[in-house]
Every structure is written in structure tokens, then in C-alpha cells.
Amino acid sequence: MPVRMKQLCVAIVFGVLAGAVNSHADDKETAAAVTNEDGKYYDKDGTPTFNIGEDGTVDWYTYSGYRRFNSECHVCHGADGAGSSFAPALADSLKTMSYGDFLSTVAEGRKNLSAGKESVMPAFGDNKNVYCYMDDIYVYLRARAVGGLPRGRPAKKEDKPEAAREHESSCMDG
């Protein structure tokens, strides 16, 4: 099993267990970046997060998440994660969805049969264009959810870190 898939499986199990124990609420303070490892930012709990400079420059991973979201997810979830008649507004959902729950839902999919309306989120755990960039998509949507990033393409971005190139190469070729 490729390393990324092992990490994904661990995150899913952790997310499911954590979700069963406590609820999740996210805001700008909780999502604040406190560490930076090779251009990837993390909050105080070690969850991937975004970093937006005072001049509006976004970190590479948030920008990549914007690009990946708009190539794979916007058809159902609407531009900028604002939702559509097909799927919910992820810019709202991530306010209460944990990182583990996000990974689990994207990887495994979800079927909701409530109030006579069926909705289905397909599984993307085997789609490299999604699972190789799940953290990127997550941090982009997290930035949208907590009001850190306005709608539309980020005007400025940090350069792509070498660690991102290495991860992309190993994930896409693995």
C-alpha cells in the first residue's frame, strides 16, 4: 500500500473515532497557522491549515486546493464551495466537519437518505487527482469556511515548495 494511502487510512480511522467522541467547530482563531513545515501550515492541533499574508498572498497548498477543487469538485459543490442543487456548500460544511471526517467522506463517499431526498457523494479514494491533493482541497475549503479567503481565484500565491513537488511525484507515480 502506498505511503499516502496508509496515512489516509490512519486519518480516516482517527477521524471516525474522534467524530464519535466530540463535535467540531472551526473559526479563524482555531484555524490559525502556528507552524510551517516546508511551506505547509498547521494549526495548534497539527491539522493542516491555510496561511494568507496581509497582502492577500496565499500559501501554495491553499492555491493548489483552489485549483483541484475547481477541477474535481465544483461541478456538484458549486463555485468556491458555495453549494448547488446537487450538493451542499462545503464552505459551510467545513465549519463543523473535522479533518478526519472530511478525509473519510471524500475517500469513502457518503449516502444520505433523509426527508425523502437522496444525496450521494461518490468515493474518490482511488482518484489520484483527488487523494493526492486532499490536504490541499481541505485547506482551501477551510479558508473559505472560516472567512479567511474570499470567493474567486487567489490573486497571489507563494511559490510551490520542493516538498509539494516531491509529494506530487511520489503520489501520482506510486
Automatic annotation (TrEMBL):
<keyword id="KW-0479">Metal-binding</keyword>
<dbReference type="InterPro" id="IPR009056">
    <property type="entry name" value="Cyt_c-like_dom"/>
</dbReference>
<feature type="compositionally biased region" description="Basic and acidic residues">
    <location>
        <begin position="155"/>
        <end position="174"/>
    </location>
</feature>
<keyword id="KW-0349">Heme</keyword>
<feature type="region of interest" description="Disordered">
    <location>
        <begin position="150"/>
        <end position="174"/>
    </location>
</feature>
<dbReference type="InterPro" id="IPR036909">
    <property type="entry name" value="Cyt_c-like_dom_sf"/>
</dbReference>
<dbReference type="GO" id="GO:0009055">
    <property type="term" value="F:electron transfer activity"/>
</dbReference>
<protein>
    <submittedName>
        <fullName>C-type cytochrome, methanol metabolism-related</fullName>
    </submittedName>
</protein>
<dbReference type="Pfam" id="PF13442">
    <property type="entry name" value="Cytochrome_CBB3"/>
</dbReference>
<feature type="domain" description="Cytochrome c">
    <location>
        <begin position="60"/>
        <end position="145"/>
    </location>
</feature>
<feature type="signal peptide">
    <location>
        <begin position="1"/>
        <end position="25"/>
    </location>
</feature>
<keyword id="KW-0408">Iron</keyword>
<dbReference type="InterPro" id="IPR022411">
    <property type="entry name" value="C-typ_cyt_methanol_metab-rel"/>
</dbReference>
<keyword id="KW-0732">Signal</keyword>
<dbReference type="GO" id="GO:0020037">
    <property type="term" value="F:heme binding"/>
</dbReference>
<dbReference type="GO" id="GO:0046872">
    <property type="term" value="F:metal ion binding"/>
</dbReference>
